[in-house]
Amino acid sequence: MTLERFDRLIAIRGDTVKGLPVTAWATNLDSYDRDLLLRAAIECTRTLILPEWTLKRPDDRRPHDALAATEAWIAQKSEDHREVAKAAAKACTEAKNEFYGHDHRIAEAARACAWASSAKDLTDKSDIWDALVAVEQELLDRIALVSEYQRLPEVRRSIVATLRRVLEPEPEKATAPVASGPVPYSASGTFVVGQRLTHVKFGDLEVVTVNGSAIEVKLADGTIKKLAHKPK
Fold first, then answer.
1. Domains in the chain: ranges and CATH
2. Integer Cα distance of 71 and 81 in angstroms
């Protein structure tokens, strides 16, 4: 059921200019923890739209600072961090006004994230929804600018994929344990220099060189033998 909400967000037909309304984001995502949602909104802003701002204005770090200040506040909800985030939000308001009509929604999304740290009610997620709306509208604007309307479905999918990566991360795959002791030698095995082996005839061995389909191994008495193996 949890993952169905992401499918619904992709399936909803939003406005081609305004994207999804706040209510659509809230209806499907409101059950998530507020801090986790805020991290997801930061990630959407940082990965999907902020690079354009960085490319055009490498010396203007106001949106970057707002996202960083918000992350600092999430990590430690002190009054000092809150004030820094609030100041960063105000700086983004200035940036939005300066560049209105030219990527202003990037600053708007970063501002919304930073304002979330100043909410009187820390259960209020409205700033988070505003950030997601701004991200989608920025991406839609870029498509409209080049008239590549066939790419419209990509916008929502990219946002949902980013949200899902933060909100429902894939469990880490268990890695096979690395053998710490000698492994049995087999001509069909693949070996590396320094690996320790056991051989039914020669006993304990250590691989000293690997050359194509052959390896050289050192026996316990120091003798070098050449054996076959399967190269990678």
1. 4-167 (no CATH), 183-228 (2.30.30)
2. 9
C-alpha closest to that of 46 among 120, 99, 109: 109
pTM as predicted = 0.73
Per the DSSP assignment, residues forming a β-bridge with 204 are 198
Q: Tens digit of pLDDT for each residue in 29-62?
A: 999 999 999 999 999 999 999 999 999 999 999 9
Instruction: Give dist(CA 132, CA 163) in Å, integer.
Output: 10
Whole-angstrom distance, CA of residue 150 vs CA of residue 16: 11
Q: What percent of the chain has pLDDT over 70?
A: 95
* Cβ(137)–Cβ(14) below 8 Å: no
Q: Which amino acid type is present at position 167?
A: L
Q: Are the C-beta atoms of residues 19 and 136 closer than 8 Å to each other?
A: yes
Which residue's entry shows tokens 């990678």?
232
- Residues above pLDDT 90, as percent of the chain: 64
Residue 189: per-residue pLDDT? 87
Any alpha helices (H) in the chain, and if so which ranges?
4-11, 22-29, 34-44, 50-56, 62-75, 79-98, 104-115, 126-146, 152-167
